[in-house]
């Protein structure tokens, strides 16, 4: 119960008038930017991050929490009204949500998404408050070898489990590692890849990387292929739900939360799998199966709750281990470093007030969102009609403002442009951007931990697998590190392992294995089989890729 | 923002997108390999003095990363040769059926570069306003007066709201003292 007491102290930090105002401001501009088409939560946080630079860390984090939830909520509004999910996590919400909106039930779809987000966000944040102290205690017990292994797992997980092409994931990861190398080596003090440019000595700011790859890269990519006719927006009144809608929504909300949080909390869980699991569960359990495929409220309530609970879940590894497991967490970690806060296992110990203030403001932001957005939804819907030239010009405008504000120097704008062009190239050739961002953040830290582990073992390679017991002077393998390495190997060889099992086992057993292996398969399923029935949409490139 | 968004592509018509050759993909491989060589050369210039507190030294990690870049570039080249081309990222404002409008991209880069050169001299209000104005026109807006008004409102608004209101560091430039 120690979490509860800390949480109350967190509320004392967060609930001052100034901080409440900052949370409100964050929620409003977060929603306003997040609702813009094409801008997902990660880009919302990246673009608006510099807005918080003038504030002291507590205020900045509180505002950031508001921006984060606002961006999440804005994203679901966009996917329901436009059928254009800003990120993969809201793909499933868009399925039934957009169909509901098309059949004249936009108000109910938005309402069940908003209340479901609130319920899931509140429960998820509660679970975060209870879990964080325990995970932190575990995290502190990790030494350099274990920490090295866990970070390696995070790399492999974002690269090999998420996304469709492993090879391209690893290329993106390696580009990120290269960017992370730039600057003065923390251990030896030697300059690497700086080419004699003094501004590169401190490395490239992660915020500049995130804004460049996400925002500038996206704007340039869209500019090259701008659709001349904007998508159709569905009109909406004030969101509300009837008695029957409430009755049909509350169970999916809770089930969605139960799926979302655990998946968010483990590295590489992500939001795609739980939102999809929630969708198929609701489809199976509903009393109105005939409505699925035509706009069933359960199909919005469940996945949307799963999405938000998963977002709360990603805070667990982010706050207790400093591990980003999705794009938004990666940008939030970048924010931490730019406020001078060192993420990692000691975060909760060193900056307890700050972290609990942040967790408390997640509750506050979530509540403000509900109060604010039910009445404001028609206004947000108007933002969807923004002319595209203004939208993308605005993205470039705010991206430049933010990058300049990092160090007050035009040099960061040069980097921003270069990284934007890199982001363009990555989109052109189908390289995923998440592994790159995660590698830029974790690359320098994993090198440091690896070198520290080798230092403890006087340069022997076994130092990566365990450490010398200080009491007995004997070398001991670390069970945690070994377990993590085994998981990494299994993930890496999974495609071959899976094939081998199928070949050896008879058909019936193979089916059972397939059921177990559903996890990786689900992502594929989500992409190709769950298409909106009345739309003939297959992915335009999928044919070409399979050839 | 990721491939899965692309895959959702409910807005995409069923027709084949533009056919593309493999040469750009091979150029990408060449670029990756070149980057790998640069990383390796830079790493070999480091003096790798290993000490008791740093038995590994600063060199092995860049050597590893540089080698990985070259190996992955080769692997990608093999994949491309076998016909495995990357999925271009789709999105609701993206029409992959038209040819890439590289002119628009170059013009945007030009407008962006102008802002880099001008921001410290003219200040954020003027240079940022020009950035928005230029980008909007490149992206196809033809309401020249309205665009200018919006650009001015945005740059003034951000300057007063963020620089003065929230303490974000933006330069006033030649308007120092007027704003």
Overview of this structure, please?
The complex is a heterodimer of chains A (547) and B (179). Chain A is an all-alpha fold and 547 residues long. Chain A has one domain (2-221, 235-532). Chain A has 21 helices and four strands. Chain A has helices at 2-14, 17-34, 41-48, 57-82, 91-140, 144-161, 166-181, 206-224, 243-265, 272-285, 298-321, 327-338, 347-350, 352-383, 388-407, 411-428, 434-456, 479-504, 507-516, 518-528, 542-546, and strands at residues 183-184, 191-192, 466-468, 475-477. In chain A, helix 9 (243-265) packs parallel to helix 11. The model of chain A is unreliable at 516-547 (pLDDT under 50). Mean pLDDT of chain B is 83; it is low at 1-19. Chain B has two domains: 21-81; 102-175, no CATH class. In chain B, helix 2 runs antiparallel to helix 3 (60-81), helix 4 (102-122) runs antiparallel to helix 5 (124-138) and helix 5 runs antiparallel to helix 6 (144-165). By secondary structure, chain B is mainly α.
Topology:
The complex is a heterodimer of chains A (547) and B (179).
Chain A: H1 2-14, H2 17-34, H3 41-48, H4 57-82, H5 91-140, H6 144-161, H7 166-181, E1 183-184, E2 191-192, H8 206-224, H9 243-265, H10 272-285, H11 298-321, H12 327-338, H13 347-350, H14 352-383, H15 388-407, H16 411-428, H17 434-456, E3 466-468, E4 475-477, H18 479-504, H19 507-516, H20 518-528, H21 542-546
Antiparallel strand pairs in A: 1-2, 3-4
Chain B: H1 3-8, H2 23-45, H3 60-81, H4 102-122, H5 124-138, H6 144-165
């Amino acid at each position: 119960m120690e979490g509860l007491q800390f949480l109350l102290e967190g509320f004392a930090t967060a609930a001052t008038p100034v901080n409440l105002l900052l949370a409100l401001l964050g929620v409003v501009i977060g929603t306003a930017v997040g609702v813009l088409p094409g801008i997902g939560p990660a880009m919302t946080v990246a673009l608006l991050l510099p807005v918080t630079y003038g504030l002291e860390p507590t205020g900045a984090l509180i505002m950031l929490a508001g921006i984060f939830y606002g961006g999440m909520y804005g994203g679901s509004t966009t996917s329901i009204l436009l059928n254009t999910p800003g990120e993969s996590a809201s793909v499933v919400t868009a399925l039934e949500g957009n169909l509901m909106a098309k059949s004249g039930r936009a108000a109910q779809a938005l309402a069940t998404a908003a209340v479901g987000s609130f319920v899931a966000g509140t429960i998820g944040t509660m679970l975060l408050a209870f879990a964080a102290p325990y995970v932190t205690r575990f995290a502190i017990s990790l030494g350099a070898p274990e920490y090295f292994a866990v970070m390696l797992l995070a790399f492999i997980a974002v690269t090999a489990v998420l996304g469709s092409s492993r090879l391209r994931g690893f290329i993106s990861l390696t580009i990120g590692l290269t960017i992370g190398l730039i600057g003065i080596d923390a251990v030896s003090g030697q300059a690497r890849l700086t080419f004699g440019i003094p501004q590169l000595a401190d490395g490239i700011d992660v915020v500049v990387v995130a804004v460049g790859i996400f925002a500038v890269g996206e704007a340039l990519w869209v500019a090259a292929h701008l659709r001349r006719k904007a998508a159709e927006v569905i009109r909406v009144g004030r969101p509300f739900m009837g008695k029957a809608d409430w009755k049909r929504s509350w169970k999916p909300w809770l089930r969605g939360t139960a799926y979302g949080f655990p998946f968010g909390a483990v590295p590489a869980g992500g939001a795609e799998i739980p939102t999809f699991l929630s969708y198929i569960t609701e489809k199976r359990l509903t009393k109105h199966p005939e409505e699925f495929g035509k706009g069933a409220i359960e199909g919005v309530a469940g996945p949307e709750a799963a999405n938000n609970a998963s977002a709360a879940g990603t805070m667990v590894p982010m706050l207790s281990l400093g591990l980003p497991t999705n794009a938004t967490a990666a940008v939030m970690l970048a924010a931490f470093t730019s406020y001078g806060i060192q993420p990692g296992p000691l975060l909760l110990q060193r900056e307890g007030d700050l972290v609990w203030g942040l967790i408390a403001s997640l509750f506050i932001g979530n509540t403000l969102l509900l109060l604010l957005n039910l009445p404001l939804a028609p206004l947000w819907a108007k933002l969807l009609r923004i002319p595209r030239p203004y939208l993308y010009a605005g993205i470039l405008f705010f991206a430049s403002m933010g990058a300049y504000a990092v160090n007050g120097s035009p040099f960061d704008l040069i980097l921003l442009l270069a990284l934007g062009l890199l982001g363009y190239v990555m989109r052109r050739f189908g390289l995923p951007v998440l592994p790159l961002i995660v590698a830029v953040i974790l690359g320098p830290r994993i090198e440091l931990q690896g070198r520290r582990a080798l230092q403890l073992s006087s340069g022997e390679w076994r130092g990566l697998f365990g450490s010398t017991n200080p009491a007995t002077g004997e070398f001991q393998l670390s069970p945690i590190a070994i377990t993590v390495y085994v998981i990494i190997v299994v993930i890496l060889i999974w495609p071959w392992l899976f094939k081998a099992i199928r070949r050896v086992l008879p058909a019936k057993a193979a089916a059972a294995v397939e059921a177990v292996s559903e996890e990786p398969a689900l992502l594929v399923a989500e992409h190709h089989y769950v298409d909106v029935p009345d739309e003939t949409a297959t992915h335009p490139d999928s044919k070409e890729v399979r050839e | 923002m990721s491939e899965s968004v692309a895959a959702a592509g409910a807005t995409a018509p069923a027709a084949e997108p533009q056919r593309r050759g493999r040469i750009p993909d091979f150029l990408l491989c060449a670029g990756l390999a070149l980057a790998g060589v640069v990383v390796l050369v830079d790493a070999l210039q480091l003096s790798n003095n290993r000490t008791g507190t740093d038995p590994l030294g600063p060199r092995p990690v860049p050597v590893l990363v540089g080698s990985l870049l070259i190996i992955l570039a080769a692997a990608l080249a093999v994949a491309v040769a076998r016909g495995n081309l990357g999925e271009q990222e789709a999105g609701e404002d993206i029409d992959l059926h038209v040819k890439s409008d590289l002119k628009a991209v170059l013009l945007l880069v030009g407008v962006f570069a102008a802002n880099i050169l001008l921001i410290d001299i003219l200040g954020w209000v003027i240079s940022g306003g020009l950035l928005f104005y230029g980008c909007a026109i490149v992206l196809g807006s033809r309401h020249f007066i309205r665009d200018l008004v919006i650009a001015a409102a945005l740059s003034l608004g951000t300057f007063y709201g963020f620089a003065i209101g929230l303490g974000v560091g933006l330069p006033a430039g030649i308007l120092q003292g007027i704003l």
